[in-house]
Amino acid sequence: MDTMIVSESDSKKKITDLLLFVAVTGLVGALSSLFSGGNFGEFYNSLVKPPFAPPGWLFSVTWIVLYLLMSVSAFLIYDSDSRKKCSALKIYFAQLFVNFLWSPVFFRFKSLIGSAVIVTILVIMVGIMIRRFYPISKTAALLSIPYLAWTIFAAYLTYGFLFLN
To answer: How confident is the model at residue 8 (pLDDT cuts 50, 70, 90)?
Structure first.
């Protein structure tokens, strides 16, 4: 009976921890959006777009999915028994901060050069994060691949905006 109580308690703690990762990651995205000043569509639509630029609404949908994947990925690292999880999570939160910076720099300050620098740093950091995650949890690393792919695509778009506008 005691084992079931501990197991149920562990299960509740894991769910709480996972929800905390979802909340923190989502909050970073929400704050980034808030500090971006709104009117995303207006600025985005005013730009000359590179080939394959998606419609503006797709970004919100994509980021919701990516933030959920990022949250689960980071939780898997946190929940592991690895001695390397602290350094891996530091990279996660560092890249999350860089991720936070991109939208305000691009949308509020309309700095195409600044956002290009930020997205370049972000691509590198997400790559490092995946490399750090892989030995700890292959699943966590694999869940981060769509984020890396989207970040590379975002870099392409950002550089496209920079060169075309």
So the answer is: confident
**CA separation for the pair 137, 102 (Å, rounded):** 28
Structural domains of the chain in order of their starting residue, each with its CATH number: 2-164 (1.20.1260.100)
Q: Per-residue pLDDT tens for 90-117?
A: 999 999 999 999 999 999 999 999 999 9
- Answer for the pair 162, 113: CB distance below 8 angstroms, yes or no: yes
What pLDDT is attached to residue 2?
43
Sequence-distant (6+) residues with CB within 8 A of 127 are: 148
Could you tell me what percent of the chain has a pLDDT over 90? 88
SS3 content of the chain, % helix, strand, coil (to 5): 80, 0, 20
DSSP 123-157: HHHHHHHHHHHTTT-HHHHHHTHHHHHHHHHHHHH
Q: What pLDDT, in 10s, does the model give residues 11-55?
A: 899 999 999 999 999 999 999 999 998 778 889 999 999 999 999
Q: Count Cα atoms within 13 angstroms, Cβ side, for 120.
A: 7
| 3 state DSSP class of 54 | coil
